Amino acid sequence: MFKHILVPTDGSRLSEKAVKQAIRLARQLGARMTAFHVMPKFHPSTYQMELLQMTHGEYDQTRLEHALQFLRYAERAAGAAGIDCKGKHVVSDHPYKEIVKAAQKYGCDLILMASHGRRGIEGFLLGSETQKVLTHSHVPVLVYR
Q1: What is the Rg, in whole angstroms, of the alpha carbon atoms belonging to the chain?
Q2: What is the full DSSP assignment across 58-88?
Q3: What does pTM read for this prediction?
Q4: Cβ partners under 8 Å of residue 42, min gap 6
Q5: Residue 8's CB: how many other CB atoms inside 10 A?
Q6: Which residues lie closer than 8 Å to 46 by C-beta, 6 or more apart?
Q7: d(Cα 64, Cα 93) in Å, to the nearest integer?
Q8: Looking at residue 90, what DSSP letter applies?
Q9: For 87-128, what is each residue's pLDDT tens digit?
Q10: Where are the alpha helices (DSSP H) in the chain?
Q11: How far apart are CA 62 and CA 134, in angstroms?
Q12: What domains can you pick out in the chain, each with its CATH number?
């Protein structure tokens, strides 16, 4: 049925649970996974107050460290279950567009993602990326709640 699952992750608790669910599904189907993270661009007025004092270079380094942390989590968890998983990341202010593009680029036939990610002002600024993916994706989307 499904042979390659794209799993977007933002590091939230629900996103980590979605990664675990994707691993279970991949194991049952004999599928492989691509964990995917979209890093926000640098903006002087950002949604994380501690980043306002950062330089562009410091911001780039911090967001990359976070991305790699999220992706390593997925890769390690999948590897422990015997699932082939590669982590990929991009920079964009439009996560849903990048998720949809990634599914096509990497030949994924299913996107499994959390119903929502970050809360508070971060969630407000990100909007409902899951809803946008559901609207724009050309491959099936499985939403984990």
Answers
A1: 15
A2: HHHHHHHHHHHHHHHHHHHHHHHTT--EEEE
A3: 0.87
A4: 56, 59, 60
A5: 28
A6: 40, 52, 59
A7: 15
A8: E
A9: 999 999 999 999 999 999 999 999 999 997 555 544 544 448
A10: 13-29, 56-80, 95-105, 120-126, 129-136
A11: 30
A12: 4-144 (3.40.50.620)
